[in-house]
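Regression test case RT-17, inverse folding.

Input:
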């Protein structure tokens, strides 16, 4: 028997693959699906079996799935030039994965599909969303993750699937928050409009929750938010981040309308040189929302999961790791 992880070369996927190897004690093969050209990075020396292919290559996908009892689908993209690309990779990729599971490992015990809080959308009034509320994605990325969840519903009668919707994820190896850490190191933090709140989770907690959900009978056919219990105001989050790099920072407010303008300019400039910036119009739509908050209560009820890592301690650990890697000074 084996376990397959798609997206294992990424931030969350690499942590998940390592946790599965540690938890299996070497008795179960952990397979990682990756393109021939993918950099194996953090898992280069890990005792995993690399399966060359992608969710867009049906034959390679089926071959990787044969004999798997658990499947974790994390492969996807967070940046794209248009909604069609998001849908092709995140939506159609999930459909292909589930169809291949049905064909190649009909006896699979659990398929975990990671989507995002973006599939549910922001909270309209600041209350933490629960999994039963209607989805209101505001971005092309969120809509594509919603499309992935629609495919999950289509396959739910044939496969035991659990959906995980993480909010902001931080920890060692994460790149998106790195820029914010680097700015804080230089004494600057940037805030948008006032009154924003966010849910957050450390990658170690998220990975533990994914594995716990995969092995909980009650979690089959259900969707879960995995986050720290209490959302944070953006001002508090920036204070914790500044403390993690040991600096006092000057907080500068950048109105959301300016952020959206800057994103458009950066995306257009990037198109001239064939490069997609980290801040696109689609990403700016997400960043401009006031409340990206969710409740992890269902996960606590169904399989006893709670975030264990204190955010201040987790931020400090992340800052130390960045410094050890030379990513910040």
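Golden output:
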């Amino acid at each position: 028997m084996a376990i397959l992880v798609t997206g294992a070369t990424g931030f969350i996927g690499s942590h998940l693959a390592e946790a599965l190897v540690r938890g299996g004690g070497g008795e179960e093969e952990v397979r990682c699906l990756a393109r021939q050209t993918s950099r194996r990075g953090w898992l280069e020396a890990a005792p995993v079996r690399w399966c060359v292919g992608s969710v867009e290559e049906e034959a390679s996908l089926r071959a990787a799935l044969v004999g798997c009892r658990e499947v974790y689908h994390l492969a996807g993209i967070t940046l794209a030039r248009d909604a069609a690309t998001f849908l092709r990779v995140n939506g159609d990729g999930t459909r292909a994965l589930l169809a291949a599971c049905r064909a190649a490992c009909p006896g699979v015990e659990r398929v975990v599909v990671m989507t995002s809080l973006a599939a549910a959308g922001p909270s309209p009034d600041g209350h933490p969303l629960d999994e039963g509320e209607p989805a209101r994605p505001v971005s092309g990325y969120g809509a594509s993750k919603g499309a992935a969840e629609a495919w999950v519903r289509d396959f739910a009668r044939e496969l035991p699937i659990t959906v995980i919707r993480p909010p902001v994820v931080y920890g060692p190896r994460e790149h998106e928050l790195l820029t914010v850490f680097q700015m804080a190191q230089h004494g600057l933090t940037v805030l948008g409009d006032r009154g924003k709140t966010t849910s957050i989770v450390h990658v170690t907690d998220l990975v533990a929750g994914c594995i716990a959900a995969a092995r909980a009978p009650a979690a089959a056919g259900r969707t879960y938010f995995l986050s720290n219990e209490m959302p944070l105001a953006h001002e508090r989050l920036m204070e914790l981040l500044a403390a993690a790099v040991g600096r006092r920072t000057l907080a500068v407010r950048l109105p959301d309308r300016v952020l959206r303008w800057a994103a458009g300019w950066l995306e257009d400039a990037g198109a001239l040189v064939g490069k997609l910036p980290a801040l696109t119009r689609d990403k700016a739509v997400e960043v401009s929302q006031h409340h990206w908050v969710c409740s992890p209560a269902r996960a606590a009820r169904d399989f006893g999961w709670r975030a264990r890592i204190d955010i201040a301690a987790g931020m400090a650990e992340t800052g130390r790791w960045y410094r050890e890697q030379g990513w910040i000074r």
